[in-house]
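Person: I keep going back and forth on a fold encoding question. Show me how you would write down a chain together with its backbone fold. Please set it down just below, with no commentary around it:
Helper:
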Amino acid sequence: MFTGIVEELGEVVAIENLGDSSRFRLRGPLVTEDAKHGDSIAVNGVCLTVVDTADGEFTADVMAETLNRSSLGALAAGSRVNLERPMALGGRLGGHLVQGHVDGTGTLVERIPGEHWEIVKIALPAALSRYVVEKGSITVDGVSLTVVDAADDYFTISLIPTTLALTTLGLKKAGDPVNLEVDVLAKYVERLLGRGSAAGADLRDLDEIKEMDR
């Protein structure tokens, strides 16, 4: 579990194509200082498992499913990436609850500079729009952000100087893909409400059958 508060702006050192998967080698001295085999590190919001670490770098195997559902497949040696270690129990939750399980990719549409910040417009898949609400939380390339405006096919976010300077969101340009993870609580609520309605319908049907038997 992560918080969406990026710890380090890392870099892709090398990518080895393994056919149906890829092995990434990434540089991140901060996030690897206490990392070991089997630990998790979020890379642009994607939870990856550490294979090994050495000299401030770590390797991770990325399966075809992850490459197909995220923007990691578009990375190359030299690409900058957002890195975050899992949250520690008992620590402060600075952003919101983030799983590192990407729901889909969006596209940066427009950057609107302000005096001290930028408004960024991002197009998103229609299937995800129902989970995005004004003033709600969303994770963009692993960064926990508050939604400014929410529409059927896009949303906007406001980026402060710190976010622009310390994450890849300051480097993105129009047309670039971004990883999106919506608030998992919204998905659970939707699922539970759907099951609740179905369960209620089953109980009503059972009551009707009992009435007919009488």
